[in-house]
Write a structure and sequence with these properties.
The chain has 277 residues and is α/β, with parallel strands linked by helices. It has one domain: Metallo-dependent phosphatases (Purple Acid Phosphatase, chain A, domain 2). Helices cover 30% and strands 16% of the residues. It contains eight helices and twelve strands. The chain has a five-stranded mixed sheet with strand order 3-2-1-11-12, covered by helices on one side. Strands 4-5-8-10-9 form a five-stranded mixed sheet, with helices on one face. Strand 11 (251-256) and strand 12 (264-267) form a beta hairpin. Helix 6 crosses helix 7 (148-155) and helix 6 (130-146) packs across helix 8 (169-182). The longest helix has 17 residues, at 130-146. The radius of gyration is 17 Å and the shape is globular. The model has no long low-confidence stretch (mean pLDDT 95).
Length: 277
């Protein structure tokens, strides 16, 4: 069996199909680890959902911010599409309900204890151990599956900026979602700056650093993540970063989680302008 981790797909079904063919991926023998953001911005989100769902237990995916945005729109928490949304094909599909039910059941974090591999969409603040991150993910997942309307009504927003064990209710849920699905940079104290995009900040002028470069309580696990297209491929600091900007005209990248070899990349044509990321 080979475990392949694949970066943000974002509705690029043709590229995903071509990459799986290049990998000679065989359901039942091999396993996919998908970093989330299966949908949006690309042209064929519906086909991506159908394909990944059809793989059953051979595909493990976590929810990204665009996946949650799709669910929020489906539950009426977002009446109007955001700029760049390409979700209408999913929302009007005849199998919409079964696909959304499947997506709703996906986790925010997945952990393979035997290999000490943790899969999330974006990252972890330095103060969270893998155990704490998984517990917080389960809290949100429980609400997502039991009372999604309440979660989506409070999900959007950039605050709080820093973690506290005293956080409760909507602020606790929102911070958890923001870190697991939107984080790029933070301070050593765990203060997040969710609006900071583009390449990683360098030099003394910024107190913020890529989350994985800071001393972190989750150092005992390898974290596989995506979300940061301007960062690109990373294999350092105990993490594997796999968002290589497929939807922006970069590449879709697969990484063999069990063997030491170069990542496999498939150049992509690009469907959006990078300044919208």
């Amino acid at each position: 069996m080979t475990r392949y981790a694949i970066g943000d797909i974002q509705g690029c079904a043709g590229e995903l199909e071509a990459l799986l063919e290049r990998l000679h991926f065989a359901p039942g023998r091999d396993e996919l680890w998908l970093v989330g953001d299966l949908v949006n911005r690309g042209p064929r989100s519906l086909e991506v959902l159908r394909l990944v769902r059809s793989l059953g237990a051979s595909a493990i995916t976590v929810l990204g911010n665009h996946d949650l945005h799709l669910l929020a729109r489906a539950f009426g928490a977002r009446e109007h599409p955001s700029a760049g949304d390409t979700l209408d094909q999913v929302l009007t599909a005849p199998d919409r309900d079964s696909l959304l039910e499947w997506l709703l059941a996906q986790p925010l974090a997945h952990y393979d204890a035997a290999r000490a591999d943790l899969l999330v969409h974006a990252g972890l603040v330095p103060q969270w151990s893998a155990t704490q991150a998984l517990a917080l993910a389960r809290e949100v997942q429980s609400l997502l599956r039991g009372d999604p309307g309440t979660l989506f009504a409070h999900m959007y927003g950039d605050g709080p900026e820093i973690w506290s064990d005293a956080l409760e209710g909507p602020e606790r849920w929102r911070f958890t979602v923001n870190v697991l699905t939107r984080l790029r940079v933070c301070t050593p104290e765990g203060r997040v700056a969710l609006k900071m995009k583009g390449p990683p900040p360098r030099g003394m002028r910024s107190a913020y650093r890529p989350w994985f470069e800071l001393p972190r309580a989750s150092r005992d696990v390898r974290v596989i993540f995506g979300h940061w297209s301007a960062l690109g491929y990373v294999n350092a600091h105990g993490v594997i970063g796999l968002d290589t900007g497929c939807v922006w005209g970069g590449a879709l990248t697969a990484f063999d989680l069990d063997r030491s070899r170069a990542p496999i990349t498939l150049p992509c044509r690009g469907y959006q302008q990078p300044d919208k990321d």
